[in-house]
Design goal:
Helices cover about 25% and strands about 30% of the residues. The protein is α/β, with parallel strands linked by helices. It folds into 3 domains: about 1-60, OB fold (Dihydrolipoamide Acetyltransferase, E2P), CATH 2.40.50.140; about 115-255, Beta Barrel (OB fold (Dihydrolipoamide Acetyltransferase, E2P)), CATH 2.40.50.1070; about 270-430, Rossmann fold.
Length: about 425
């Protein structure tokens, strides 16, 4: 098919039309004229890939990555950062076309080398990289543009260990083999590094030699953890782990607030943008209010604003994250916080009935809020601050929250993931 790309839409696809049929093509730019090959059809739309670029858009730039459009790590390296923000604003306005207030997205202070965490799959032939878009084929790279450059040096060191130890690599088709993923976490403030090795089995040869080689090259490594995931699934981490060296956490900081992060606890991958977002949340919490921080993780949002409020109640399902949250409250000298390892929706109902709670901060997984809960928010709750990494499910949830008496009074998106289509959005809703 010969098509012209009209615009960029959710999930980063370029949208064109063949006759009147919508065609979605990744790695395209508005005003590109291309020939496209069909990947598959879904309902009345077509998903395709570039066959040939007949005429390049005036907005297209040369991506500074040798594996762009193969590796699934980036979507928009072929677009200037200024235009990335413009296109994200257009996507936001389309998703939230029924919302009166949709301000422009807040730019990231750092749009390259910003990631503080990566997990790399290991292929059966010993390659380490990122998955190709929509596949489980591992694509290697020499110099990833969205992570710190030393991450690639760590990959080289681990790859050398794989070759010399002759350890068997996990095959997701057969379920045989051992090594599955190589993970890195890094604190930009303390410069601490955690290494996470994900294996199928507990036994792993020559780990002392591996630790020695890693630490000789990077003395700021504070822990090497082996996580055991024996299940045949796409979930990266299992529940069991061993500390091969040092500790299972690192220390991080946002503004003046300090955090301890367990190796498997969720934390924002772009610290500079996270601070801007947390400042926005703090500005929109009423002084002296009693706040539930739902899906709180290590307590980062709640602890960041705790000095402004009366009481903080954090709820999280992950046991290790809750332990970190309690520790983080302690090292920041908080006396007004409590954290619970519990089902979020059930614990919210308990707290609302027993405490004088008036505000909830939601930062749920990509799937958004549970349907039965979002339609029945307790009436004592007068304000919701909804942080989302998936504006589409967020908009779905808005409809039910508005039917339940809430109105969106303010909204601000943040570019947490430059060079990708992803958008982090914060909305303030009040009864």
């Amino acid at each position: 098919m010969k098509i012209k790309i009209e615009k960029l839409v959710n999930k980063g696809y370029g949208l064109g039309f063949s006759d009147s049929t919508p065609v979605f093509v990744p790695f395209t730019v508005p005003n590109d004229i291309i020939t496209a090959k069909i990947n598959f059809k879904k309902g009345k739309v077509i998903f395709a890939k570039i066959d040939e670029i007949l005429q390049k858009s005036e907005h297209r730039i040369e991506p500074n990555c040798e594996v762009f459009a193969k590796c699934g790590g980036c979507d928009w390296l072929n677009i200037s950062y200024e235009n990335q923000l413009k296109y994200k604003n257009e996507v936001l306005k389309e998703i939230f076309h029924k919302v009166e207030i949709v301000p422009n997205i807040c730019a990231s202070p750092q749009n390259f080398n910003y990631r503080n965490k990566c997990f790399y799959p290991v292929s059966t032939d010993g390659q380490i990289g990122m998955y190709e878009k929509l596949t489980h084929d591992v694509i290697t790279h020499n110099d990833c543009k969205i992570q710190p450059s030393f991450f690639d040096e760590l990959i080289v060191t681990f790859k050398d260990y794989l070759q010399k130890s002759k350890i068997k690599i996990y095959d997701e088709k057969t379920g045989k083999g051992n090594i599955r993923y190589f993970g890195i976490r890094h604190s930009k403030v303390t410069n601490e590094i955690l290494i996470i090795l994900v294996t199928k089995n507990r036994k792993m040869p020559f780990t002392n030699l591996l630790v020695k080689k890693l630490c000789e090259k990077f003395p700021n490594i504070v822990g090497v953890i082996q996580n055991i995931n024996s299940k045949k699934s796409n979930v990266i981490l299992g529940r069991e782990y061993k500390v091969l060296f040092g500790q299972n956490y690192l220390n991080e900081q946002i503004g003046d607030v300090k955090f301890r992060l367990n190796y498997n606890s969720f934390f924002q991958v772009n610290i500079a943008t996270a601070e801007l977002m947390y400042d926005f949340v703090k500005q929109n919490v009423r002084a002296g209010s009693n706040v539930i921080d739902a899906y709180c993780g290590v307590g980062s949002i709640g602890i960041f604003l705790a000095d402004k409020i009366e009481q903080l109640f954090g709820i999280e399902m992950d046991k290790n994250a809750v332990l970190d949250a309690k520790y983080n409250a302690k090292i920041n000298g908080l006396k007004n916080s409590q954290f619970y390892c519990a089902n979020v929706e059930n614990k919210i109902l308990d707290l609302v009935s027993s405490e004088n709670v008036d505000t909830i901060i939601f930062d749920p997984p990509r799937k958004g809020l549970d349907e039965s809960f979002r339609k029945n928010i307790p009436h004592k709750i007068k304000k919701i601050i909804y942080v989302s990494c998936n504006p589409v499910t967020q908009m779905r949830d808005f409809k039910d929250l508005q039917n339940d008496g809430f109105k969106i009074t303010k909204m601000q998106a943040f570019d947490m993931f430059p060079q990708t289509y992803h958008i982090e959005n914060v909305a303030i809703l009040e009864r």
